[in-house]
Design goal:
Blueprint: E1 4-17, E2 20-33, E3 37-41, H1 48-55, E4 63-68, E5 71-72, H2 78-88, E6 89-93, H3 104-113, H4 121-133, H5 149-161, E7 167-171, H6 179-194, E8 198-202, H7 206-209, E9 214-219, E10 222-224
The structure holds adenosine-5'-triphosphate and magnesium ion (MG).
The site of magnesium ion has 3 residues, from helix 1.
Length: 226
């Protein structure tokens, strides 16, 4: 069994805008073991989202090696990456990114639509159970606009969990929430982590980061070693 879920070696990322190139990540090394809850912090523009998008296979590094769950993924095709993303990763974003015309339940089931097996009755039951667990049992037919920010983020958490991911990635998951909803969301993260799910979360907020088991700070394209 693979113990290290994420191994990044000398990851760099350079953005090219016209003739100007800008190196955001300057040789990131990171190992994340199964069961960890890691928070990544750093100033605005320091490259947190860039790094999380690389870990989440939404973006490719300019150079370096990335071994996810025992497999080198930095050279895979878009299609292969999409497959791994759908099977192994769950995403939670600051702006929720729910589909506005779909109900809470339909939003949760959405990732399974991309699987050729499709959606079974069992999946639907599981989606309902997830929503119930997250305190939304009576809101499964509500559209995102009919839900509060905290409720929308809980729908997004259920959606991230429906595919039974190995790794949950969250970019400022409490960034759009008031302090009460933020606390609810971060407590859910901690519970999920205690149940064994590995989490990597980006946050500005030290109050939120302290729920993680480990904190890494990124500055000038690299982690500050502590
Ligand atoms: N597609 C892009 N093209 C060019 N530059 C980019 C692109 N995406 C990000 N950048 C630049 O890379 C740097 C890092 O951006 P990133 O979004 O990773 O920062 P961040 O740490 O997540 O910031 P924030 O806390 O504000 O979300 C920034 O200077 C940004 O302007
Ligand atoms: Mg960001």
């Amino acid at each position: 069994m693979v113990k290290k879920l994420v191994i990044l070696k000398d990851i760099t990322k350079t953005y090219q805008t016209g003739k100007v190139s800008y190196q955001v990540l300057k040789g990131i090394n990171l190992e994340v073991e199964k069961g960890e809850f890691l928070a990544i912090m750093g100033a605005s523009g320091s490259g947190k989202t860039t790094l999380l998008n690389i870990i989440g296979l939404l973006d490719k590094p300019t150079s370096g090696s990335y071994i996810l769950d025992g497999e080198e993924v930095s050279k895979l095709s878009k299609q292969e990456l999409a497959y791994i993303r759908n099977r192994k990763l769950g995403f939670i974003f600051q702006a929720f990114h729910l589909i506005p015309w779909a109900t809470a339940l339909e939003n949760v089931l959405m990732p399974l639509l991309y699987r050729k097996e499709g959606i079974s009755k069992k999946d639907e039951e599981r989606a309902k159970k997830l929503l119930e667990r997250l305190g939304l049992g009576d809101r499964i037919k509500a559209k995102p606009a009919e839900l509060s920010g905290g409720q929308q983020q809980r729908v997004a958490i259920a959606r991230a969990l429906i595919g039974k991911p190995k790794l949950l990635l969250a970019d400022e998951p409490t960034g759009n929430l008031d302090s009460k909803s933020s606390e609810e969301v971060i407590k859910i993260f901690r519970e999920l982590n205690q149940e064994g799910i590995t989490i990597i979360m980006v946050t500005h907020d030290p109050e939120i980061a302290k729920y993680a088991k480990r904190i890494k700070i990124i500055k000038d394209g690299n982690f500050i070693e502590k």
